[in-house]
Amino acid sequence: MRKLLSLILLLVLGLSLHAQQYVSTQPSNRNVVLEEFTGRNCGYCTDGHAYANQIAAAHPGRVWSVNVHYGSLSPTSYPNLNLPQINPTISNAFPHDGIPSGVVNRSTAQGQNRSQWSSLANVQLNQAAECNVGGRVVVNPVTRIATLTVEVYYTANSTVDENYLTVMMLQDSILGAQQDYGNYNPSGWLNGDYVHQHVLRDIVTPGIWGEAIAPTTQGTLITKTYEYQIPESIGSPNGVEVKIEHIHFLAFVSEKYQGTPTRPILNAGELEKVIGSNDPYYPAISSVSLLGGVTCSQTKTVNVNVSNIGTSTLTSFVLNAEFEGTTQTQQWEGSLAPFESVDMNFTITAPFGTHNMHLEITQANGAAFSGEANFPIECLEWLTVEIENDTEDLKIVLMQDKWGQQTTWEITDSDGQVLGSGGPYNTLPGSNATQVQMDYVTVPANECVKFTIYDSGENGICCNYGDGYYKIYDSGNNLLVDGDGAFGSEASHLFSIVGPGGPSTIQITTLEPQIVGDHSANFLGAVKRDDIEAAGFEYKKLVDPQVQVAVAQLNGSTFTARVDDLELNTMYSVKAYAIVYQEYVYGDEVHFHTWVEGVGELERSLKVYPNPTNDRLTVEGEMTSVQVYNTLGQCLITKQVDASSVQIDLSGLDNGIYFLRVSNNGETAVRKVTVNR
């Protein structure tokens, strides 16, 4: 019987030894978790960050620092890095005199000065660990659900029969303010902002001190699975966006509290992070961007990157892009292995301002699927600057406020190349101090350039810290931009720099469209240039803001396009455009009215004169009524007629374009009339 029990025990141990996926079964020394108590208003805490970073750098993959922000030196202004229900509990469990302070593997009952961290870490790193900790977290970038698998394997017996497993979520690369009395951590700054690293953002496991696990004897494998919804932001007020690419998960095993020392950590490990899904077919919209860099154009090309985050190969999917009431659909077919991606492009015409594009994947491998994303499309109006030479010098005058280290600016060209930049500037003494900064930037002709000013404090260069502003002048000292300092986090301005032969010298003419069918018309345009890259027409119903585009065929100095999707009895507007030096130049907007049902003798015989008119309009033809409409489709004048000629008094109308609708026994004809006094 004893031999049988031994065999059963060996089988059980054998299953335990080989069931793990991520954790090592070989004995090892302890890794280290350094919980650092810190704060943004602590001027010496950057020195603590530097100490912790040096220890981690000396032992890569074995030491992790956890920044615990709390207390009076951790303000709730942006970025608010506090966790009110977690951080005070952890820090209060380890009494300490001031910050920066910290505990190394919770091996001491009190928080220790930064000068002690290295020696305490070396003791832990050279001590045999009772267990190993490992695992994987799969993060779905669409649903923001993290599925965590954590394994603990005991290579020796723990001194107690119950341990605790804790998983923390940490976040890197959080930009924001930080007091720094001595520039202790110079590598921690970026363009005037401090880069806050390995900040404790949440605890995934139940309870602040973790979830109880047992047994804790040699040869035991414990596997835990958690599903965690990653928040969009953490902190109130002034919360910080939780960016998936900047988070990581740290797991460790500690003993239960027994007085002194306090909850010692036996071992720790960072979980492998994988962006994906456990579903077999999962096309995900991984990124959306505008192609072409800076453009002085309302025509935008939107790039959508779709990744296969499922476990099987994708062979097809359907992607819809809805913008300003119009939906474009693209079907992709091919072979997309897991974690591979493909680009898809959509061309849109964007109104000025910021508007939302809604993207939705509706099918995957022929089956119904639901995945969506929203992307803001910004189209800035541009200022045309005409110059006589091949370059232009722009003068930037900036009145900084007290916090000059928060302010930067740059000018970029259409390819995204930085032509000039400024800041960060010095911090000034006094609460309302200001100082003028001046720079010159040379920009090329026939180029679209973008000026952007940034403030990392997100409060501009004004108000409580000095009344700042920014101004931009051309080489003739003409004021182009008069910028208020109250711009928040950033402000941008576009300039079309037009030199000899540039876009502004193009004269585009939009000619009267020719109605050639119930739903068809020929659009006509003219241009006195032979070097335009392309031309076409933008048209829309007057009562509908959705703009449609018809690409034209070039024929010398004229270009034409036929459209076949017009509605009967509808007022439209159309304007011609041409592209030169990658910029769009437009002609005047022309209004027209499509045919109505019943067009016949009246349409052919109707005469309206004089047109333009300044007062009275003569209408000749067989008719029973005459109506006058404005461009919004509102009826302004109605006159019943029983004659072949009538005069219409337009003296009460403002200058502009109107439409005359003449009816006779079911027939209708429309004429455009211009009032011009």
What does this structure look like?
By secondary structure, this protein is mainly beta. The protein folds into 5 domains: 11-275, Sandwich (Immunoglobulin-like); 283-379, Immunoglobulins (Immunoglobulin-like, Sandwich); 382-498, Immunoglobulin-like, CATH 2.60.40; 506-593, Immunoglobulins (Immunoglobulin-like, Sandwich); 601-675, Immunoglobulin-like. Helix content is 8%, strand content 49%. It contains 5 helices and 49 strands. Strands 6, 10, 11, 15 and 16 form a 5-stranded antiparallel sheet that branches. A 5-stranded mixed sheet has the order 25-33-30-27-28, with no helix packed on it. Strands 36, 37, 40, 41 and 42 form a 5-stranded antiparallel sheet that branches. Helix 2 runs parallel beside helix 4. The longest helix has 18 residues, at 2-19. The protein starts with a helix and ends with a strand.
Fold-level CATH name of the largest domain: Immunoglobulin-like
Number of helices, where a helix is a run of at least 4 consecutive DSSP H or I residues: 5
- Our Rg estimate from Cα atoms comes to 35 Å
The named CATH superfamily of the largest domain: Immunoglobulins
Question: Taking all residues together, what is the mean pLDDT?
Answer: 89
State the separation between the terminal residues, measured CA to CA: 117 Å
Indicate the CATH class of the largest domain. Mainly Beta
Task: Provide the low-confidence segments as ranges.
Answer: 1-18
Q: Give the count of structural domains.
A: 5
Question: Which percent range fits the helix content?
Answer: under 10%
Strand count = 49
- Which secondary-structure class do the elements indicate? mainly beta
β-sheet strand percentage? over 45%
Q: Overall 3D geometry? A: elongated
The major sheet is characterized as: 5 strands, antiparallel
- Please name the CATH architecture of the largest domain: Sandwich
